[in-house]
């Protein structure tokens, strides 16, 4: 972009075309701070004699801005013989007094801290943000097969996430998978990858034979149409109750020494098994019925996902894995001696194929039951291979609760043992802490829609508490709904994925078991204060409001004289805004939504504490324009980051 070229030529010593060769990982046109890093590496190289390409990668971020914008740990440069703390002092002294981009570095023990100079940073960063708009921060080069040659195309990634089970509750684990998976898909898309979002439904197994029986007995076509997810779930709860009662009866009679063969042969359990066997064998009527349930459920899921700004490219699922594909995989496993027969069933004994602790951990896994039906693991192995054939992906993420860690390890190990090591290397389990299991049979469980509605209603109440502001909102119900969703999502994303989430995610867990705790936590997550979703929405709406009240056109803002932004507060806002591309790239490494959120909360706090010092409305015209340019850049960055998280930023 122009702003960066102009600045580079002003600095004089930087030739951007030379820099591209020396620093292949620098992207100054989209990440202005890279220009500073190039300049620091150039300058320090002259002073120290250390090679530029060694300096550039060790220029690090600081924990907080009072420690500088960049920091170099001198020992990381691996200079033999010399004392790092002495070098830090020496280099700081030799740093040119009149450096155009940074102040004289500050030595502190073995570190050198760098502070950027206000005027050039403000000019460059605010202009780049305006020029890039919605693209500011995106690392679109990351997904290129060959960063030097975009015509070679983009890398392909599959993100499998959400994956609920039809006729069963959409529990907190599914909600977390949905939120994290949606975020990761956005992230990779913004990083230039070709992303395919897959929802792998739990939609196959004996329990769906049981569900069909329940429908025969109690099904209601109209109810099914009206709310398929709710209706199927109710049937599922009902039939399970009956089946449990039946099993207890059989047990009791057994104990009394009675012959239960007859009872067992006609039991719901046995009927379900037979019905499911019919489905497996391709009985058209049974399958048509099942497809009908599945299609209606998917339609409903789609509506709910849309509220979270999520869509899927493919609704796959356990039912979609063909018997043919599994027979083939089964054949390969026998051939390679991975699977074995165990009185009729087929299993893998990992201890025979993997040494030591790892083998023990993996244990044994059943692939096929005695009656020939394939299990969860077998389906996943075939599905993985199928996906690779279909998409030839470079990477695949499974966003699944940590409860299934063993399952995924077994899946990856089998893939490896089958000789598909190259495919296995492309796969990663994105694990996250799970909340307490919730019984599917109690009927008190809530669905995603219910959680979102409850929290939206509550949000509406919270909004009404401020009558003045409430009166200004045009569609209060719609806004309440969006804010409610934001509070659930931010609450869920604030904690680290990996931390056991029993504490962090109490608010989401509780609605499903204890209503009182739910309400209590709801109060916290829907608050406009503290690190919440509504707080971010408020920060965004406030920036929009300043823009409305300033009543300036885009052209007027673009022509602002940015040299008027001389205050410390203005520079601090700029310093935060300049970090967004770095934060984005760091997020590609951590794959944690909290990396974005931590940044956002810091950034919005700095903006909010600047309002008293940098008034827009009421300042004289040129200053007003310049400050508006600052806040408008802040609005753009906040908007970009919120959208990346999957939030819909509100304007009022
Ligand atoms: N439907 C599963 C469940 O709810 C999650 C599926 C995870 N993905 C997979 N490829 N196994 O437990």
UniProtKB/TrEMBL annotation:
Enzyme class: ligase
EC number: 6.1.1.19
Source species taxonomy: Eukaryota, Fungi, Dikarya, Ascomycota, Pezizomycotina
Domain Arginyl tRNA synthetase N-terminal span(s) in chain numbering: 34-116
Pfam family, any one: Arg_tRNA_synt_N
GO CC, alphabetical: mitochondrion
Protein name: arginine--tRNA ligase
Family of the protein in this entry: Belongs to the class-I aminoacyl-tRNA synthetase family.
UniProt keywords, alphabetically: Aminoacyl-tRNA synthetase, ATP-binding, Ligase, Nucleotide-binding, Protein biosynthesis
PROSITE patterns: AA_TRNA_LIGASE_I
GO molecular function: arginine-tRNA ligase activity; ATP binding
GO BP term, example: arginyl-tRNA aminoacylation
Lineage: superkingdom: Eukaryota
Catalytic reaction(s) noted: tRNA(Arg) + L-arginine + ATP = L-arginyl-tRNA(Arg) + AMP + diphosphate
Domain DALR anticodon binding: 536-652
